[in-house]
Amino acid sequence: MSDPREAAARYRAQQRAESADERGPEDAEAGSAPGVAAAVDRAAYIETAIQVAIRRGEFDDLPGAGKPLEGLGGHHDPDWWIRRKIETENLTGLGPPAIMLRAEDRDLDAQLDALGREADVREVLEDFNRRVIEARRQLQGGPPVVTPTRDVDIEIAAWRERRAARTTVAADEAPAAPRRRRFGIRRRT
């Protein structure tokens, strides 16, 4: 079943295209603009096709229908598309240093908590600070590096506190050792 409006739009577009072909290049130089008319007809045809599809319900049940668009109310970030691509593709190690350092800074506490020795924590923090300072000094363009450096002594003290809290919680949650039964030995009374 064809929609009459769609058929009419196709007919008008076809008639104008045929008349533009019949006029030839001499008429185009004389002042008529067949290219403009064809573009207007194409736009009208496209608009009609969209309206027909809406009436048919072809745009119903699209993902995100009725929901606000993401990121419209927040602050403007000129590199939003890079961040979104990195997040959706789960890419690691790619992107401008400013974005990569922000992401690493966000996950740095969890990375430090996985370490067992203070010397390793100090080494990771010093490496992170070195890379932040190096990224600030580079003039390669891209977004500015706004990631702060970390105070190594304060971070080590916080790491110690988190570690001590984890060990006390683990000791409190550990179940009491079950009594072991000895099989094969009977007690006589």
Describe this structure in words.
With 189 residues, the protein is mainly α. It has two domains: 4-56; 80-172, no CATH class. The chain contains six helices and no strands. The protein has helices at 4-29, 34-56, 80-89, 97-113, 118-137, 152-173. The longest helix has 26 residues, at 4-29. Residues 28-32 have low confidence and may be disordered.
What does the secondary structure layout of this molecule look like, with pairings?
Blueprint: H1 4-29, H2 34-56, H3 80-89, H4 97-113, H5 118-137, H6 152-173
Shape: elongated
Rg, Cα atoms, Å: 34 Å
Mean pLDDT: 79
What is the CA–CA distance across the termini? Answer: 96 Å
| Low-pLDDT regions | 28-32
Provide the helix percentage: 55-70%
**Would you tell me the structural class of the helices and strands?**
mainly alpha
Count of separate DSSP helical elements: 6
Supply the number of structural domains: 2
**Count of strand segments:** 0
- List the quaternary state of the chains: single chain
Percent range for β-strand residues: under 5%
Helix and strand run: HHHHHH
Main beta sheet, described? Answer: none
Task: Jot down its keywords.
189 residues, mainly alpha, 6 helices
Outline of the structure:
This protein has 189 residues and is an all-alpha fold. 62% of the residues lie in helices and 0% in strands. The radius of gyration is 34 Å and the shape is elongated.
